[in-house]
Amino acid sequence: MKSILYLVLTVVVTCSAQQQYYNNRYDNLNADSIVQNERVLLAYYKCVMDKGPCTKDGKNFKRVLPETLSTACARCSPKQKGLVRTLLLGIRVKSEPRFNELLDKYDPDRSNRDDLYKFLVTGN
């Protein structure tokens, strides 16, 4: 009986310790093509900033964006980290004011800014 209880406890601890990644639905998204297309990038930006309409994909990005930014992509798979990093750096290169506005909206108290900048530099 003790061994069964120990086994169950081990499985529960192991499962809860494993990181749950975001859904992999957008893992094959071509982030570079979005960044290179000013119109598409601006449309996504306006969506997540509540300044324009959202596509279904835009709504999904907007839903996970607060957690993604506040945790520096902690629940992102390695592939997702690359995509998020490409998109954020693309926004930053195209328009530093928009990039700062985005960060101010989703991290207004700047509590995670250092971790987020580290993520953008290192990818981790």
TrEMBL record:
The keyword Nucleotide-binding does not apply. Keywords: Signal. It comes from the Eukaryota. SUPFAM superfamilies: Chemosensory protein Csp2 (SSF100910). InterPro entries: A10/PebIII (IPR005055), OS_D_A10/PebIII_sf (IPR036682). Residues 1-17 form the signal peptide. Pfam families: OS-D. This is Chemosensory protein 2. It comes from Choristoneura fumiferana (Spruce budworm moth).
